[in-house]
Amino acid sequence: MAEVSLRNVSKVYKGGIKAVSKVNLGVESKEFVVLVGPSGCGKSTILRIIAGLEEASEGDVYIAGQRVNDVPAKDRNVAMVFQSYALYPHMTVFENMSFGLRLRRYPKSEIVRRVNEAAEILGIKHLLGRRPLELSGGERQRVAVGRTIVRKPLVFLFDEPLSNLDAKMRVQMRTEIHKLHIRLQTTMVYVTHDQVEAMTMGDRIAVMKDGIIHQIDEPMNIYDRPKNKFVAGFIGSPPMNFIDGRIIKKDTKLYFDDGARIKVKIVEDMYPKLLPYLNKEITLGIRAEDIYDRLFVSVAPPENIVRAHCDVYEPMGSEVHLFLSSGKHTFIARVGAYDRPQINQDMDLVFDMSKVHFFDKDTEETLI
Ligand code: ADP
Q: Residue 337: which of 324, 321, 310, 318 has the closest Cα?
């Protein structure tokens, strides 16, 4: 069993830079957890603290139930894959992959067996005699992963391993690492700034900003129930649309009104949570797929219609993204592949009000 646990871990670098603040993170044995967040939010620092490459300024780190704060990196039995691959250029793939085992004086036959086994898993057996310069980016990344597999570590740590690959190779390697996890059944912690990688690979995702984990949960729970506006905006592509306005009451009904052209009726289930915000400023969040072109909706409640200007649209192949403006707000709608509205003309959109989120304007915490 190789669970990883961080308790109240903080890191202050020389010069007073606070990279990580009181992080609590529990990764279960065999789990794949992704740390995701914008550049500089402290993801790599956490990974390096787990690896033992960086010391925590405060808090405790446990691997497989053992407190490892004072255990040197080489004795932690964790393996890290870096963005830069960090391969030795003068060594062949075989020599690169076997380097760690040779240092640890494993018997030759065991080294050959392990390298062959890892090369087989990664489909790089035919490359064992080549040097890194004779490999493509994707192949180098496989060698870097292979070098860690041969050590049979308790925990794999990945630090943005796909950032240097082109878009197509990134998608392919993403699936391969995912499959590798299923095959090896080893605990993995994976760092990325790419929310698509996080959504597609993680058993759970920890969303970070400014050295703090804002939410940790299964990908779809984070997508459907983000804890605050930051998480809501960071996870999902295109990002969630945010529209500032007020909750107003007309007759007995509640509406969201941006004070310009967007006025939509709120579904009654949401009344209890929104009544305290009556006449106060609030932020409405709506995902692009929850906004429809009126022309393609058979029954559209008139109170859910928003008139907007279609500034431009982008055909994505399987869908079309409409870039719209309405009064003081702009937003994006994701519509069917064959929807071709008139550019530079007004059109009617329908907001699916059962799907909207609301955020406190000041704290940015999710209300609904
Ligand atoms: P991320 O991996 O999310 O991009 P990092 O963990 O690398 O973020 O960095 C978090 C913060 O700590 C950043 O502000 C970064 O500039 C700072 N930082 C990282 N490494 C060092 C270091 N060795 N010395 C000083 N500051 C550092």
A: 318
